[in-house]
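Re: that chain you flagged

S.,

Sorry for the slow reply, it's been a week of failed gels. I finally had a moment to sit down with the sequence you sent. For the record, here it is as I used it:
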Amino acid sequence: MATLTSELNAVNTMLGYISEAPVNSIADTTALPPSAALAKGILDEVSREVQQEGWHFNTAKDYTLEVNASDEIVLPDNVLQVDAVDNRYDVVQRGTKLFNRKDYTTTFTVDEIKVDITFLIDFTELPEQARRYITLKASRMFANRLVGSREIEALIYRDEIMSKAAMQEA
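Prediction finished late last night. Pasting the structure tokens below so you have them in one place:
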């Protein structure tokens, strides 16, 4: 059985592209060499950026959000984007709550609202195709920031494009 890409594997892949030594753990980012800490930060940044586009693995259509006792809709912590399905509602995310732009309030007079919602999923919960694409895109950005080599960037970019196509196909 194939081993899925972990965050540690991804960070070590990123380090490998610039000929840096791999690390044994990324659990404590304060104890990491600066390049490994930067790699982990870029990996997180790219994961959020890619997932914000909304993919089959992190979006839910016609998702029900319920109004709480304060007549507000509190969103889960990992929401990246939300849009009402029903045209009667013009809502946006404001902090951790759903905001009614029509009435300019966070209170609602209904029991629930159906939305299309995009979630930020932990790297280890992503499909392997997404992990691979995120790893390669993060590797390219990381190498560009640290080394600035067009040759390395071109090498990674070719693989990145192929992995994005694989993710889209999946």
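What I noticed first: Residues 68 and 107 are 10 Å apart (CA to CA).

Talk soon,
D.
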